Inverse folding.
């Protein structure tokens, strides 16, 4: 019984912190190659998941993992020094955001965006005195979570297309680690018995991971 409880606790700890494993070499070298827009999507997805939790409760371990992912990807944004990709420039920079980005960087831009969204939703909830406003974040966070791998694939394709013959770095081993991590995440998520849509989301992420891993290098 004691051994079973210890294994359960260890499993939960691994589940919460496992998403950072693939990034440890980047953090140690202080060379973050994970695209800032991907960290932004992960942060938004998990903030929306936490907001959705206000109306639809699911296991605490999933909530703790979302909190950890928000904090962790803010750290990645803070440490990231790389230039924006072609796709990121098209999506992020416009006449409203370019000045803030040049002056304060991606970290401050995204942090202010997240805080503004949370405060706006909290205000709406207080005005209407209902938690049903949070239900809209269910489908939104699912779309955001599932889009991370697709955006990664799109970034790779665009960088290859506009590289003008230069070799584009393709860290297949890192993508493989992400895929293995998502498989472990799926196993433990099923064990936690959450709502089915959370399991479907992880399955879709694994499918995209596999597509990225086995993509032909051009």
């Amino acid at each position: 019984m004691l051994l079973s409880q210890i294994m359960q606790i260890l499993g939960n700890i691994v589940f919460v912190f496992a998403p950072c494993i693939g990034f440890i070499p980047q953090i140690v070298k202080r060379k973050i190659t994970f695209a800032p827009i991907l960290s932004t999507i992960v942060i938004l997805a998990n903030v929306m998941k936490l907001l959705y939790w206000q109306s639809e409760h699911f296991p605490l371990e999933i909530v703790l993992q979302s909190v950890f992912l928000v904090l962790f990807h803010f750290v990645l944004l803070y440490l990231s020094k790389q230039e924006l990709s072609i796709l990121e420039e098209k999506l992020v920079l416009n006449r409203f955001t370019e000045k803030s980005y040049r002056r304060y960087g991606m970290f401050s831009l995204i942090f202010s965006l997240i805080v503004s969204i949370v405060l706006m939703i909290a205000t709406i909830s207080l005005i209407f005195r209902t938690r049903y406003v949070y239900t809209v974040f269910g489908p939104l966070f699912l779309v955001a979570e599932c889009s991370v791998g697709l955006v990664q694939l799109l970034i790779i394709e665009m960088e290859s297309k506009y590289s003008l013959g230069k070799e584009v770095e393709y860290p297949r081993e890192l993508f493989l680690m992400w895929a293995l991590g998502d498989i472990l995440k799926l196993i433990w998520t099923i064990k936690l018995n959450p709502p089915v849509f959370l399991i479907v989301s992880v399955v879709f992420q694994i499918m995209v991971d596999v597509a990225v891993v086995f993509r032909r290098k051009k």
Summary: The longest helix spans residues 98-128. Residues 20-214 form one domain. The chain has one domain: 20-214.
